[in-house]
């Protein structure tokens, strides 16, 4: 990697400030409502957080947007809590027993959501 030491703004004009003092001065200069570097950082972080894209909570299970599925799940009365894997409900293409009600397959969207939007986006909490 190449480093740039003489780029405009990369060092203090007189090199008499510590790195923190220099950074604070740059933050306060960029955020007009702030009087300290910490206050400017708080304002900047809050603005970034408030403007972040939010992914709907209902995307996790992908069972609709009315929150009915989620309400039933968290109340312990959802279809996933009552699901029992079985070999007896259906037959496969060869006439043999087919596995049905596999939670691993039925709830796979939750894992996909966790590995994608759930880890890298802000999830909006219902209500």
Helix and strand topology:
Layout: H1 19-30, H2 37-50, E1 54-56, H3 68-74, H4 79-82, E2 86-91, E3 97-100, H5 103-106, H6 108-115, H7 117-120, E4 122-124
Parallel strand pairs: 1-4
Antiparallel strand pairs: 2-3
Helix pairs in contact: 1-2
Structure overview:
It is a single chain. This protein is an alpha+beta fold and 127 residues long. Helix content is 42%, strand content 13%. The protein is built from seven helices and four strands. The strands form two sheets. It has a two-stranded parallel ribbon with strand order 1-4. A hairpin with a 5-residue loop joins strand 2 and strand 3 (97-100). Helix 1 (19-30) crosses helix 2 (37-50). The longest helix is centred in the middle third of the chain and has 14 residues, at 37-50.
Give the overall shape, derived from the CA principal axes. elongated
Uncertain spans: none
Structural class: alpha+beta
Distance between the termini: 47 Å
Order of helices and strands: HHEHHEEHHHE
How many DSSP-defined strands? 4
Number of helical stretches of at least 4 residues: 7
For the biggest sheet, the summary is: 2 strands, parallel
Mean pLDDT: 84
Q: What is the percent of helical residues? A: 40-55%
Q: Strands of the largest sheet, in order across it?
A: 1-4
Beta content = 5-15%
Radius of gyration: 26 Å
């Amino acid at each position: 990697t190449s480093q740039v030491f003489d780029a405009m703004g990369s060092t203090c004009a007189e090199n008499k400030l510590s790195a923190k003092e220099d950074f604070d001065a740059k933050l306060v200069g960029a955020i007009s409502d702030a009087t300290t570097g910490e206050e400017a950082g708080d304002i900047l972080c809050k603005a970034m957080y408030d403007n972040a894209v939010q992914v709907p909570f209902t995307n996790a299970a992908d069972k609709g947007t009315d929150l009915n599925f989620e309400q039933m799940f968290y109340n312990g009365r959802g279809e996933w809590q009552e699901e029992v894997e079985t070999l007896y409900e259906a037959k496969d293409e060869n006439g043999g027993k087919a596995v049905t009600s596999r939670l691993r397959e039925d709830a796979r969207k939750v894992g996909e959501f966790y590995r994608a939007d759930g880890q890298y986006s802000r999830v909006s909490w219902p209500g």
